[in-house]
């Protein structure tokens, strides 16, 4: 059994319309699924990805209309990366961010790669990372109808950063339980802190890394709009997911058991520092109930919610995504 890389990252937004405007119009990502939180159908769940909604390219958002400010802190998923083809693409994004007045830090470097750290309109902590030197997990397929040129477009998820008060228990879960390899480190941006540790799985590269940083912050992050709820890792199929469930159960980590999300099968658990990790299968995918060319245009509901469509739609603010 080997995890194949990052599957998706799920975050929180307070306003689906503003969220759609930023991620579709400014970042040029494709909305591939407009659905609801299956555990609370009163809120939207929006999925942005590549042209085909490929696993490893999904950045998703739960709309919590009254979500307050995020108070950043420890025990958190503190940074999400988005991949672009090369260093030249980053130069394009610097101009685009200036055009749209996106808060950013200019060009930088992280683990030998060129990056741009930036924030969305809700202070979501994001990074554009260049695939110039990537030799690992392949990127996704740029969206044909994006406002961003295809050779500059976002092609998937890059490294995800975890911030913890003690790296050791998280590192043990990643390496001994999940099969990640520790492949290096780089200096922390927090003065006086040890290097950020880099863990890789599957084919490795930008689409298969978790970066774990130590923080002396005594405050646990208080999530709100702009915070990340969980990170999901790629599992090939349900049979393999069942084996992971047994392995995690033997480890006595709190977990959800297998959950049918219709577009993929899932298993959720918390590692010792309290960070929520999901294991999710690559299929069946987002084209299960919509044609690929029309992904994200209509409200999609899994079969077990379809008989509640009228009730669900009446509680949602209309969101035009055609």
UniProtKB/TrEMBL annotation:
CDD domains per UniProt: PcpA_C_like
Alphabetical UniProt keywords: Dioxygenase, Oxidoreductase
Organism: Gracilibacillus dipsosauri
InterPro entries recorded: Extradiol_RC_dioxygenase, Glyas_Bleomycin-R_OHBP_Dase, Glyas_Fos-R_dOase_dom, VOC_core
Domain VOC: 5-131, 156-282
GO MF, one annotated term: dioxygenase activity
Record-linked Gene3D superfamilies: 2,3-Dihydroxybiphenyl 1,2-Dioxygenase, domain 1
Pfam families (UniProt xref): Glyoxalase
Name the record gives this protein: Ring-cleaving dioxygenase
């Amino acid at each position: 059994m080997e995890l194949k890389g990052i599957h998706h990252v799920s975050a929180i937004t307070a306003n689906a319309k503003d969220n759609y405007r930023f991620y579709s119009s400014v970042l040029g990502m494709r909305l591939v699924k407009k659905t609801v939180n299956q555990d609370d159908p009163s809120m939207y769940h929006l999925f942005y990805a590549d042209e085909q909604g490929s696993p490893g390219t999904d950045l998703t958002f739960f709309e919590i209309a009254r979500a307050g400010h995020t108070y950043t802190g420890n025990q958190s998923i503190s940074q999400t990366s988005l991949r672009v083809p090369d260093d030249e693409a980053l130069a394009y994004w610097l101009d685009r961010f200036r055009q749209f007045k996106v808060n950013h830090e200019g060009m930088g470097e992280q683990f030998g790669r060129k990056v741009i750290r930036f924030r969305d309109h809700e202070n979501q902590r994001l990074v554009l990372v260049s695939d110039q030197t990537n030799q690992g997990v392949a990127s996704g397929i740029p969206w044909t109808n994006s406002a961003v040129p295809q050779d500059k477009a976002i092609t998937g998820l890059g490294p995800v950063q975890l911030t913890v008060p003690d790296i050791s228990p998280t590192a043990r879960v990643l390496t001994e339980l999940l099969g990640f390899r520790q492949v290096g480190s780089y200096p922390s941006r927090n003065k006086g802190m040890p290097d950020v540790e880099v863990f890789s799985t599957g084919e490795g590269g930008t689409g298969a890394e978790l970066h774990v940083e130590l923080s002396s912050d005594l405050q646990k992050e208080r999530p709100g709009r702009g915070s990340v709820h969980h990170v999901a890792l790629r599992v090939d199929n349900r049979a393999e997911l069942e084996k992971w469930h047994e392995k995690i159960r033997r480890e006595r980590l709190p977990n959800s058991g297998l959950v049918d999300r219709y577009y993929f099968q899932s298993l959720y658990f918390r590692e010792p520092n309290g960070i929520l990790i999901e294991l999710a299968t690559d299929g069946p995918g987002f084209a299960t109930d919509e044609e690929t060319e029309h992904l994200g245009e209509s409200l999609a509901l899994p079969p077990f919610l379809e008989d509640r469509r009228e009730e669900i739609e009446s509680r949602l603010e209309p969101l035009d995504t055609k």
